[in-house]
Amino acid sequence: MAHYLQGMIESTTSHQDFQQRSMTGYALENPSYRVRGALFRHQDDGRLLSGCGGDIEVIHAIELERSQHTGLPVRVTNLVVFGSNDVIRSIQSIEGTDDVIVNGDYHVSIVQSVELFESSTVSKSRILKLPGKIVAVNAEKHSNTELLLVFLLETGLYHYSFCAQTSDHFQCIQAFRCNRPISSGLLWRDAGLLHVAYYDGFVRVGVVHEQYDDMLLVKRVAVNRNNLSVLLDVVFEEIGRIQKFEDTEKQRREDMLTTSKRVSEKLVTEEEVIEGDTTNDDFAKLKIEFKNQSIRCERVSSRLTSLRKLITIIKSALDMNDQIEQMISLLVDQLNELEKLEQLCDEVQKTGNQNLIGKSWIAVEEKRMVVDELIAKVNSDQIKKHSDEWNHKIDMIIDQLNGCSEGAKDMRMIISQNIFEHRADKKDVFTHFVLDTQSRDVTLYCLSGLTTLAIYPRKGKRVASISLDASFATSLTAACAMKSTEGVYVADKNAVFPIYFYRYSNRRAPGN
């Protein structure tokens, strides 16, 4: 009884605490000392979302203005996301939706816009734990029911699909594990292409190689994992597509080899560079095409092996299902026979013939024993074991198809187009990447405590850099684009200071 009362008191107290968090003035009268790792201003109605530990505090735009004019405390709505499991580090809008994506160090969640209006808790099914520390996140609407999520982790690059209509909302559809830890980075899309900038001892910027056909295959296998006939059709359809792909790639490789031979001969025979000659550019493009083809062919080869394994597993599962169906069919037949025997026994009972009554009851008992044995077989641990083995095997196949089970490789293997590369000094660690999309040319700033690099990703070149003396080295804590002018604001533990980016022209005035 004492334990029951204690539980009731604790439950009532926690409920009262939850109600108090959304009451007027609670935010200022009871300040939180948890880490505030993220701020986000909602574009539609101007609400301010503040990451507070593992929760989000939602502040309406009118509340901030009202508080400034009246001096009254700010009213907030508290939304529990990760709780004590993680600290919110970033809140981003999802293009094409009113929802936001929230991430901590290892967890991510999709928060619907309706949840931001009242105090509540995000469902655990919409929280995903990732296999490494999160460095950068990119999210976009992929269809009416699906989101495409890309995560740059300390351990590699991962693509996930999110579908609110399925029981398992998150599904990994492409993974690339890298062999060098990534400490900082940025993801963005330009003209539909996924770009990445990251630091792993080198500053590298490039376009990520994405195979949407491969991702679609993984989703179809995951959705139809328990529908064997449909799954078999999916596999054979994909094998047919791969065979067509192999024929196309063979012809493409022959064309590329012919072009390579022609370009090589041209490079050897030309002693001077002729103005307007594009031979070097053609050679550079050819290198990219060869690299992209090798990436595609390697993926296709491993996928084909996995599909052949999957066919064997499906056939084994179909045989097992046939055996189970036969047992169930036999059980149904025996149950029908038992029902008829019981009816016959009741009719014999009315005759009063003890000899017939005894024989009929013996027949009923024997039939019941047969039925009990069949029920025991159908309910046996063997069937559960078969189900567990199937789930384990299909999970392994999905991991092979999406790349989760592959060994770690050089991150440059997944970059189809290398835009920029910079080898930094070991003491010069790049911690922040800022993309300014509002400048005249889209500009990427790569920042460390000593060096600032300005890059034009679309043009593939560095346009400015500045390095401080080692005695002025500092540790940056935050950075953002100026937007009003070209440059960035950076902050360390002591102050905020600007780094301006000045353009210069090579044109000279007449007479100078």
Automatic annotation (TrEMBL):
<protein>
    <submittedName>
        <fullName>WD_REPEATS_REGION domain-containing protein</fullName>
    </submittedName>
</protein>
<feature type="coiled-coil region">
    <location>
        <begin position="321"/>
        <end position="351"/>
    </location>
</feature>
<keyword id="KW-0175">Coiled coil</keyword>
